[in-house]
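Appendix B. One record, verbatim.
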Amino acid sequence: MKLKTHISYQIEELQFGEDWSVDMLQLSAGPLLHRYSTIDLGQVIVEYIQCGASVLVRDIHDVPFLSFGVVTDGEGTPLFLGHPLDRGDTIVWRPGDRFDYEYVMPENFSGFVVMVSKETAEQRGWSMVPTRFMKASADGFNALKALSDKLAQSTILRPPHVAFAFLNALEQAFGAQLFKDSERSAFDDASDVFKIVAHARRHISGLGPEEFDNVDEVARVIGVNRRSLYRAFRIWPGIGPARYSRVLRLAAARRDLLARSQLESSVLQIALDNGFRHTGRFAAEYRDFFCENPAETLRRS
């Protein structure tokens, strides 16, 4: 059994092969501390996800497995397409799906994904048309989490035995939900809040660094009032529209700092390129948000 770990401490696009990319936007100040690890047990693969700061994630990949993404902990409420998730709530996707969704991981989030091969799921009589969302029973969730924790801490368990234990734990957690074709649920579609924010984000992203005028203008363009826009952003992704615009500019500056060398550019030029006219204020805001000076980021590029 091999444990492969990917660790990232910066805002960047993560690429796990040709068919899987993860684009992350840090939403809260502090070290990102995003950790991803996977353990391949053959017919079952278990992935672990942890994040220190709150992050908005766009996850794109082709799904060859019947997969269960289980929420475990976090200082806040995880959101999937604008829908709140509680401990034990599980997002499910089936073989052949093109997974292209957005979700918010709150500060100090942790969760895991159990992926089961299509052949194994069919042998056990599981449906290949599950609902997008399942709720684990309390006892089933506790058993599944205990098993995942034990696997993460051990290097001597035999994969066939552990894979079989995970299959049994999934059946205990989800019961009849695994064996019937489900009708569409609310989680198959984005929430109304998500749709409002998506419209606003497209508008904000299309503006230049100097063009973000005010929240009232954004609300007018997308056809909602100011209060509704603020309320939607406070739910998804959890920060106001003006703060979201600022975070986008900080993230863009960080990408530039990481992509350029000291010979190609300077902190001053990158700050100016991203609409920050006061270098000292930019450096202070950048340091407060990412916990390092922009000059340090540029030296690491």
